[in-house]
UniProtKB/TrEMBL annotation:
Residue ranges occupied by any NusB/RsmB/TIM44 domain in the UniProt entry: 6-131
GO cellular component terms, A-Z: cytosol
Lineage: Bacteria, Bacillati, Bacillota, Clostridia, Peptostreptococcales
Cited HAMAP family: NusB
MF terms in GO: RNA binding
Physiological role: Involved in transcription antitermination. Required for transcription of ribosomal RNA (rRNA) genes. Binds specifically to the boxA antiterminator sequence of the ribosomal RNA (rrn) operons.
The name this protein goes by in its record: Transcription antitermination protein NusB
Top-level taxon: Bacteria
Amino acid sequence: MQRKMAREIAMQIIFQMEIQKDFSIEKLNELIGVNIPEKDKQEKYVNNIVSNLIEHKENVDEVIKLNLKSWKFDRIAKVDLSILRTAIVEILYDENIPNLVAVNEAVEMGKKFSTEESGSFINGILGNVLKSDR
């Protein structure tokens, strides 16, 4: 499995956790078993992204809220929210991933899993995050 696929699986696990309202390590372990049936070297990467979200969810969501322009947090589509959370975890908590890679991959996931407009929406929020991070 490539890093891109691992990132997509991490986003899908975050989405499932959001739908089930269960951001626990137990749920993560269950969903990794379902989404990555065979041991894979990228499993650690998926685990890292989702574990960081579980640990820092309040901060990640606050970063999203602070960077929304004329939009309410609870109106964000669950898929878009999952993509944003994935990217922000990479930006804030993974020094091995360049910020622009995290943004570009998030935009592509938005186009693939949500709508064409989601790519622009995600890009705008993450652009604000990068500007405010400086």
